[in-house]
Amino acid sequence: MISVFDPRQSAHRPLREFHNGGWSDHAEVPSRATTILGAVGDAVPAADHGLDPIHAVHDPGYVTFLRTAHARWAAAGREGDAIGYVWPVVRRRALTLSRIDAELGRYSADAVTPIGAGTWDSAYWAAQTALTALDPLLGGTARTSFALCRPPGHHAGADYLGGYCYLNNAAIAAQAARDQGAGRVAILDLDYHHGNGTQDIFWTRGDVPFVSIHADPAQDFPFFWGHADEAGEDAGAGATRNIVLPHGTDIAGYRPALAQAIAAVRGFAPDLLVLSFGADTFAGDPICHFALETGDYAELGAIVAALGLPTLVVMEGGYAVDALGANVASFLNGF
Ligand code: SP5
Ligand code: ZN
Q1: Which of 26, 246, 272, 301 is the Cys-Cys partner for 14 at CB 3.0 to 4.6 Å?
Q2: How far away, in angstroms, is 225 Cα from ligand 2 center?
Q3: Rounded to a whole number, what is the distance in angstroms from the first to the last CA of the chain?
Q4: Which atom of ligand 1 is nearest to the CA of 26?
Q5: pLDDT of 252-282, one tens digit each?
Q6: For the chain, what are the domain ranges?
Q7: Closest ligand to Cα 156
Q8: ipTM for the assembly
Q9: Which CATH superfamily is domain 2-15+23-58+120-334 in?
Q10: What is the rounded CA–CA span in Å between residue 258 and residue 285?
């Protein structure tokens, strides 16, 4: 399998996140990517596909904000990472904002996703990593490829960051595939958390169906999204499918959910599959509550591979750094 990794993704070094009423060390550390790289072996660097495929998914105002936010934060005399502290919640009118704190609120979904000096560079090259891994699938020279993206992407919406995500790598790749002629592109999201950004981006579209298995959002982040009755609207009615599982789910509980998800993907008859893969379903994950074991990932990989679709695997979460390489390698070897 072709793997793509770009070292510029390591520039993003979030210091800390606000959670349970206080600051804790940030879980989304640069060593996540390098340990996965060590386990998968060879990888090619990303080729620059420019801003156009990013703008095909994300609001240009948001992209400009991401690119400039940390410099503006520093210019305002602040130290460390830029992070919001006031949010417009809902139904406020669209205002022209000038103060960095206001823009941080406007474009953020939470306070666990800080912007540092290297964040834009890493997010940009994560998106380019996904686009580069897509190319051989579109060109017909590979059936499967792995985009070792960091920071992850599936919580980022068209105009907001959140859940450690800034640019939605999977959505950018799926849209690029559509723009280059793929008829229908399904996204299957197997991260522990609901991929709310991806769902939001394709909510009213039938050409990019979204199927996700995740921890019940009644119990876990992102809380406001990913409930079982969310199914899409307008042309996307029925093209979103959410399968929720309780804390403690192990392979015996995950297997039937995956069978349902696979049946849903097959029902959409896609030409290409984008797989948002998170290894935060692992039993030893420090911030999540499922119970998959390293060997189980090979079974998941084999089940997805049996769909027989050209498949782009995009890295999302997974925070048990010591086991992360083995878990990802197990999944990819299952293919
Ligand atoms: C891509 C992805 O897996 N994002 C996950 C975001 C979940 N954030 C939830 C929040 C908090 C828990 N943070 C605990 C930090 C301990 N150092
Ligand atoms: Zn996750």
Answers
A1: 26
A2: 13
A3: 9
A4: 17
A5: 999 999 999 999 999 999 999 999 999 999 9
A6: 2-15+23-58+120-334
A7: 1
A8: 0.95
A9: Histone deacetylase domain (3.40.800.20)
A10: 20
